[in-house]
Design goal:
Residues 100-186 form the Cyclin-like domain. Belongs to the cyclin family. This protein is mainly α and 342 residues long. 53% of the residues lie in helices and 4% in strands. Strands 1-2 form a two-stranded antiparallel ribbon. Helix 2 (56-67) runs antiparallel to helix 9 (197-211) and helix 5 (113-127) crosses helix 6 (137-152). The longest helix has 19 residues, at 282-300. The relative contact order is 0.12.
Length: 342
């Protein structure tokens, strides 16, 4: 019997045991790489709310203890920031274009905000330690995105690597993705999941909701806040800002803009209480808050090149559509015609 073409994936777990598995070409995700990520990220803290949640101070300390270890290296980010756009070096503008493409993919597949934030965290950390050429950025970005998908999404929702390449309209192969993913994971020492601004934003939002009463609880909308965070991720400047400070700045700006509500004082007091826990200076918070406001204005303007899901739609047709998972597109079923109508 002739065997189908296959690729070999070798991954080393922290204990030193090696896993090598042969899988059909194009079905790269069937190997449970996410198990490796989870084994190497046992200390990852997920923020929780509700009666079973840990106390706020405990969750905050757990996130802050890890925040510094998962920050991109500032020296590497400065090199990107000062690089000239000559087509040979990585620049902040190229990074922003790539992040917008990843946001388009996130919306196209319906992935969670956690997946997108984690993908940007992985991408920024890798770019800060590796000098890459612009021609390799698409492969690097998609690999970081795929690592985040396998780490944060349910297995049934993880697309095939080959399908992901097709939909993102890239020309590299699954083998190219495999090699690049190995490089990314090794450079990050297999530390994939760490505290992101989204974790802090959700934790702070939950804390504020617990401390205010009445109509004040309706002032802040977590979906709006998360959408604002996604816009900030598209701006390179926030790669240098601590996730906790970015989350605080987004909340501070939203509370400031909701001044027409009578109980805004309660929201401000709750925010100031969190600020004291973090030890953030007023000047730093005001500075980042103004940057967030400027970013959101630019993002909502017509001058900003926002992610365009329409760009991805042309490929879902014909032979490609038949090869994709059924969950990637919805088929509208016609309602049953009642017999009495005949």
């Amino acid at each position: 019997m002739k065997l189908p073409p296959c690729v070999l994936i070798g991954s080393t777990i922290k204990s030193g045991a090696e896993i090598t598995e042969a899988i059909p070409d194009g079905s790269y995700n069937t190997l449970r790489c996410s198990l490796l990520f989870k084994q190497n990220d046992k200390k990852m803290i997920d923020t929780l709310s509700g009666p079973d949640a840990l106390p706020f101070a405990v969750q905050l300390k757990a996130l802050l203890d890890q925040e510094g270890r998962f920050q991109p290296k500032l020296c590497g980010l400065r090199i990107i920031e000062t690089a000239q756009d000559n087509g040979l070096r990585m620049t902040a503008k190229l990074r922003e274009f790539e992040v917008r493409d990843l946001l388009s993919l996130t919306r196209f597949f319906g992935f969670s905000a956690e997946t997108f934030s984690l993908a940007i965290s992985i991408l920024d950390r890798f770019l800060a330690v590796m000098k890459i050429q612009p021609k390799h950025l698409a492969c690097v970005g998609l690999c970081c995105f795929y690592i985040a998908v396998k780490s944060a999404e349910e297995e049934k929702n993880v697309p095939l690597a080959n399908d992901l390449i097709r939909i993102s309209q890239n020309r590299f192969t699954v083998s190219d993705m495999m090699r690049m993913e190995k490089i990314v994971l090794e450079k990050l020492h297999w530390k994939v999941k760490g505290p992101t601004a989204l974790h802090f934003l959700r934790l702070f939002y939950s804390r504020i909701q617990q401390q205010v009463e009445g109509d004040s609880k309706k002032v802040l909308d977590i979906e709006v806040l998360e959408a604002q965070l996604k816009a900030c991720h598209c701006c390179f400047a926030f790669s240098k800002v601590k996730p906790s400070l970015l989350a605080m700045a987004i909340l501070a700006l939203e509370i400031q803009e909701q001044h027409e509500y009578g109980d805004a004082e309660g929201l401000l007091e709750a925010l100031q209480g969190i600020q004291q826990h973090l030890g953030i200076k007023n000047g730093d918070l005001v500075c980042v808050r103004e940057l967030v406001g400027k970013c959101l204005v630019e993002y909502s303007s017509t001058k900003c090149q926002r992610p365009n899901v329409q760009r991805l739609r042309w490929i879902i047709s014909g032979r490609t559509a038949r090869q994709l998972k059924h969950s990637y597109y919805k088929i509208a079923h016609l309602p049953t015609i009642p017999e009495s109508a005949c």
